[in-house]
# Entry
Amino acid sequence: MPVGKRICALRVNGELREVAVEGTATLLEVLRYELGLTGSKQGCDEGDCGACTVLIDGRPALACLSLAVTLEGREITTIEGLAGPKGLHPVQDAFDEHGAAQCGFCTPGMIMSAKALLDRDPEATADEVRTALAGNLCRCTGYVKIIDAVRAAGARMKREQSERSPREPSSGGDA
Amino acid sequence: MAGVIGGKHRRVDGIAKVTGAAQYTDDLAPSRMLHARIVRSPHAHARIVSIDASEALAMPGVVAVITGSDMPIRYGILPWTQDEQALAEDVARYVGDGVAAVAALDERTAAQAAAKIRVTWEVLPALVTPEDALARPEVKINPLSKDGNVCKRVDLRFGDVDAALAGADVLVEGEYDFASTTHAAIEPHCAIAEWDPRGRLTVWSATQVPHYLHRALARVLELPEDRIRVIQPPVGGGFGGKSEPFDLEFCVAKLAQTTGRPVKILYTREEVFYAHRGRHAMNMKFRTGATKDGKLVGVASKILIDGGAYSSFGLVTTYYSGQLLTAPYRFPTYAFDSTRVFTNKPANGPKRGHGSVQPRFAFECQLDEVAERLALDPIELRRANALGEDATTVNGQKIGSNGFLECLDAVERASGWKERRGKLGRGRGLGVAGSTYISGTAYPIYPNEMPQSGVLVKLDRSGQVVVFSGVSEIGQGVNTMLALVAAEELGCALDAIRVHTGDTELSPVDLGAYSSRVTFMAGLAAIEASRAAAKLIREAVAKKWECTAREVGAAHGTIFHLDDTARRMPFAEGCQLAESANGAPIATGGGYRTRKVGGDYRGGSIGASPAYSFTAHVAEVEVDEETGQVFVKKIWVAHDCGRALSPVDVAGQMEGSAYMGMAEAIFEEHAVDAHGIHRGPNLLDYKLPTTLDTPDIEALIVESNEPGGPYGAKEAGEGPLHPSIPAIANAIFDAVGIRLRRLPFSPPRVLAALREQRTREAKKEQA
Ligand code: FES
Ligand code: FES
# Structure
């Protein structure tokens, strides 16, 4: 039975959400079962698969290993926070175009890890992409099309960045 | 032809998957839903003396407990081996066998309550190896076994293989051990059930076989089939690991019935490992004989199969371990003698390339040895023995289209085989292997005369087309395949199509996503249904244009006159004309009907398929002789899938297959200790390759035209895995001259083989 809950204010995808959580509740439980943000997936619940990857202050983190109560004041971004009214985020679009999502279960976590990398360095090499995605297991694709998609998305983000502001580097490629 | 088939398209469910909008089973939460947990046996073999749930039931938040006696009727995926009970009632047969289930208001409470259910056990002898199980027939592992612990033996001979091998110029003999591996789909099994007061049951499940689940639920819960609806949401990976009913599906159904509330069970990752049904461990003794110019004269095998505690698909597995080896090479004589044995372990079942990946490993390694002994190029040896098109195999299977030689050409060329093999220096090498696989099993699992796959197409006057089919989207892209077929045949825009699959209430039956049957069978059914609807449109338009229906064409949302393209109308208008002419809404059906194929002997229909795919791999490896590590640097995989209906998706299947085979060669082993306890039931200890462990994979699609297939298509989901493992083994030989016969090729095994090689060479020098 739920005992010892406390109100916790979490900033998720730019919105402030107040939830009553137990001290031991993981961010993944809160996202999926309290906030209805089921895009972040649970593949293992023990930090091994990466399907639950979200961004905390722009850096990839495993939601199944993060305690929700410790995240007040942090900026949490989930897969649901990427696409905007203008359409898909370039990483999402590239995954779709390249056939990088088969069963799609690893996809949200993959996309979040990829976004964090490309926000830092849209020109990441194939080896750098491999390293950045090493914590995200995929059982369907053999990673081939995922790596292709991430590199294609990086190229597009780079292009869009330089179109937007030719001189200063921008922080992201949000749609 | 609208030119949709064979083009580059995005998947119909792609956007839902990249945005996180796709709702998998665990993403659903009907209101008032309870969560349940299954209590599992800590013993590999033990009698249940008593179960005391009083403490659990007294906990706040706990709603109900069920045990084996609540569901006494046995089930099993094959009608001949119904040997499983939803919860074991008398005896637990492996560590992880479920014995009780508890439903509570939330998941944590359910887990705490499960730990408070006290089971008193009488521990029985646990036999965890097939050898031990055979040696002690008095310990009865499975309730149905009649002959000690033998589940099934198949002993088939084609021609006088012993005489042929005795007369062979070269005879290669060897013993091979394939370790068990598991599917490890990233989505754990999950099921939800809802029971309504009229006595109707709805079950959502991450299953590959909604139809078989539907039948099994009716049997076990003693409900009429017409009261049950099975919904299969998108499945987060299957690979054969979700292709039979599992305990959670029955438990949620029974608990929903008991409590009157929706109930969910989500397996923990540990439970997924114990549920298993993965690749059978096999001990395989193989003999292969050839003439001095490299023509095969005979192949014989004796195979011991570790079944685990239950039958699963075991009858079929036992046949497949022999029946699927007889192509792509011609051999005049052949024999196999395979025995599947029960052991006190999680049951083995079908994993991508069911039953045939293991013998393919052994046999393709033997072919490499034949080539070595005769100083022939291994690719040349394979070419020289190729069976060709329109051939009949030694065991009576009929091969139609056959692109195997083109597959060999493709990997030879792409890998630079001629220039590079044997010339990379010690430590680096190339290896080749080939294979075949079925495109669907000829016959349904339970004998019947109904179509094995049904598709309905409904036209709306808006121009929207809805395709209904019982197929299961498990990531292979079947929903997209159905949409492509409908767009091709109807000439509507791809975006005008909606696909509804995996719901037994909405869609006609399809038998499920297994045996690489879906594109072939559902594809043909979709063509038939779409053509019937297209005919109604064309006839109605022809009437208006005062021409013949043959003169009416359609593509990409426009209907036009074939000779006078100025005459045209939007697709929606054609639908309206058809509906007017028909006087009723347009809904048409198509089916895949069973064709008679296979050899004329007992078991001759098992392994028989309406079509066969072909594959060749070249693998490049690097062996670190200090650490014993094998690094697979690159895999070239060429696959004859017939016509590639969606090349991106075919390539995706080939890449995923090559990856999964590589994983089995180098990393993975599903092993239990002497007590039946899993050696590492998590995704860290069970080593799934990451991006850093996976080599570059180059998919080379080889198209052939299968006369009976949809637009000439065959399969791509399972065939491309088969040569992965022997190609890597043969590459290791090319690199450092050792023959590895036991999987996986782990550092200790590589180091031991290298030590042996040094001892052998030292002895040779002394002599
Ligand atoms: S669910 Fe978080 S790492 Fe697997
Ligand atoms: S697409 Fe299925 S796990 Fe990655």
Remarks:
- Strands of chain A lie at 6-12, 15-21, 53-56, 59-62, 75-77.
